[in-house]
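Milestone M4 deliverable, item 7.
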Amino acid sequence: MAFQPTEPVGQTSVASNGHLLSQAPPAMPGWWSVLEHHSRLLVAAVNLATHRIEWTSNRFRHLVGMVESPPSLGDVVLQRLEPDDQLWVRERIRRHVLNAILTRRYHQDDLLPSRWLHESLILSVRPLDGDRARFVEFTVSSDHVRLLALDPAVDAALDGCWSTPPDASAVMQQLNQPQSPLQKAIQLLNPQTYQASGMILIEGMDVSDREVTQRLMHLLLDRESILQPHRFQQANHLLKRLFRATDSLILTAEGGNAELYLDLDGTEWTVHPLPVESLQGSVLFEAASQGAVLNLRDLSSPALSTCETLLQARAAKSMLILPLVVKPAQLHDAARRLGVVGLISDQPDAFDAIDEHNGKTLAPALTIAMRQTVNERFHHVHESVRWRFEEESERRGLGLPPAPITFSDVYPLYGISDIRGSSHERNRAIQQDLLEQFRLGLAIINSVCAAVNQAFAHQCRDDLLQKIEHLQGGVTVDAEITLLRYLQEHVEAHFDFFNTCGESAQAAIAAYQSAKDPEQGCIYRARSIYDKTVQQINLSLRATWQRWQHTMQAVSPHYCDIESTDGIDHMIYTGKTIDHNFSPFHLRSLRYEQLRAVCDCARTGFRLKAQHTTEMDITHLVLVQDCTVDITHDENTERLFEVRGTRDTRYEIVKKRIDKALDAKTHERITQPGCLTLVYSTSDEWQEYQDYLRYLQRAGWVGADIEQGRVEPLQGVTGLKFARVRVLEDDPSNANAVTSSNPREN
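Output delivered:
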């Protein structure tokens, strides 16, 4: 229902900014209709004598749900606000009443500054059916407010404020003091203690998106961890509110494994571990790879991956994906992708261009927040030792001083699957890319020389020819950076001039630019193939090892840390301080399972070698030690555990240097492609592992021939021995034929 002003339109009107004006020009009779029906301002005119709303704009009525005759301010409007916000609105109105009181009392109309009278206020408005909660920035103005009567108690309180008529400075001084006499007098002001006439104008603008974005940014960039449950719930609530989402998710991926986190509103999230291979074809994985906000308007099509199947089961109809991408610090570094945050709707096509813009604005802050705290939830404490960290957390929660988290007398099991020849392959890829880029640069200079025939241009060409000749002989460690910088400074820097040297030069420049990778800023074809090959090898090796971890953890819970560089290495700690049921039988079982897992990694390497055209091979080594070590958690280092005590340092030294160890007799690497190499110290260790090799031979994992030798002394370590055996490929002629009669082996 539309409410008309109490005075005729010819006498009082409302300007475009919402303020009441007197004597509106008769030539503009349509202003009321325009303002009422089309203005985006939230406007309400309140009669101060009755405290009833006399007129509102349509948007104001819709916001507060006014459907009947003009109500009083408290009946409808204030009920839509939180209790604290209701007090603030009343306080703003009291300011204008106070201004009328001071004007009448001291015959001055400028004792209160306009800024204080019209200070804006951001309020949270509760949602109505079918709508969402809103943030509205309100201001309160007044027109011809006159004081008619004042309660004696208020009058007496004002008498105690100043002994002589105050100026504006004296008034503001008391306003800025919470316990001043003037503040106490203001608290007595309410509709029962004064009578006044005039109009109060309440004006507002819906600033929901702006306010939610600002609050969310503040939450994300605060130093306190965003992944603390109560703070993440706040952030998740604001995200869903900003994007009108009904659900949300987080997807992270590291190495060969991914994790999909759902039910983010609760303190315990639902986690779905997924192999990275299962994400191929997933829209989530595509968004993470592109590093851009992706608006998926319809998820009703047949599911392409496990992710989409899970989401469709939760009634997801559309989704907005925000990537978490850390930009590279160096030219040749690849961007690091932490994962994605997904906003889900149960309606198709629920997100629009404004949402996409807001997503781009928030993605960097989300990335920073997740990057700062990713170790707290995504790289969580290993399940086998979580109980000890929880105990320590409870201790500190009781105010007790920190105590070291240590596991004593645990057995270390260490192994490496190393990519042999990766450095050579990368250098070859660098050489190919640089040669291609230099030859395209030479084509530009040749075109320039033909056009301008200048001596300096010919010298530039000779320099390029000389560098190409050197590149053909190989690359040095610094070539990737220095040669690219040379091209930038001596070729690319002059493109503006070169483009004036004819169509041939322009075409050569276009070919040069189109060949460059936009993300890397240079030609990156061969290196991209190398990167993908190494990544595929690492992912496949890691996935193989993770499959075996399920079997090994079932034998006895143990701590296992996996690192991926050029290949993977694993570090296992097991013992009674981690698993109270641990026994020597469990130790022997784990050692045998470790060897089977490494052999399976070798077979994975055989398959990868057949799939990729590469000179890279994979070698496999297991370091044997029958002595226990102590490990402790150091909160100041990135690794979860470090060995403790001088007696354990020898093992750590060997771990760091054993992959490059040489045969003392032949001076060749003790590790060889397709072979399993064991490194040990004592005859007792060899006797135990000799039995394991016999079991592996019987199960068809390795060949019958065992090579043995001594390890050339390492710096600080002598007396090591090695045994090497070839891993058999998995085909019907060997492993399958044997293991078919031993089902427990697979």
